[in-house]
Amino acid sequence: MPKTTAATIWHNPACGTSRAVLAMIRAAGVEPRIVAYLKTPPTRAEIAAAIAAAGLPVRAAVRAKGDLYKELGLDDPALPDAALLDALAAHPALIERPFVFTARGVRLGRPAERVAEILPAPRGA
User: Fold this and answer.
1) What is the pLDDT of residues 69-117, one digit of tens each?
2) What is the pLDDT of residues 52-76, one digit of tens each?
3) Within a domain: residue 123?
4) How far, in Å, CA of 14 to CA of 43, rounded?
5) Which of 39, 83, 106, 113 would be a feasible disulfide site paired with 54, CB 3.0-4.6 Å?
6) Can you give the CATH number for the domain in which 85 is found?
7) pLDDT of 1
8) DSSP letters of 89-119?
């Protein structure tokens, strides 16, 4: 099956889940546009749009692992979404990963299988 470029992934090559999702996309016959979001961070507006398009609460897109999450006080459940978005924009390492964008929708690849919902249907399906 020929590869298409009908997807974009916000990718962190150091993340096992991100690598697994990238492999899943490629196995579906899609060669995605890879955005190394730690090197080329999305804007606050792009982050907010991705979260909304994925149908997630903002907090679900915040990576809670690592010291920075607690250092910035992001574990406070009373923090408003605006403060969380500001933190994500200022510190892209806090963006949960990977976000995948296709014509069929946007998904946060946690668990990785969620991405299959927006990949092209197999031929003959």
Assistant:
1) 999 999 999 999 999 999 999 999 999 999 999 999 999 999 999 999 9
2) 999 999 999 999 998 999 999 999 9
3) no
4) 22
5) 106
6) 3.40.30.10
7) 42
8) HH-GGGB-S-EEEETTEEEE-SSGGGGGGGS
What would the two tokens of residue 83 be?
A: 């403060």
Cα 41 from Cα 37, distance rounded (Å): 5
pLDDT in the model for residue 2? 46
Asked whether residue 80 is domain-assigned, the answer is yes
> What residues are labeled active site?
15
Q: Which ranges in 6-112 belong to alpha helices (H)? A: 16-27, 44-53, 67-71, 81-90
Nearest to 98 by CA among 7, 15, 5, 1: 15
Domain of 114, in residue numbers: 7-118
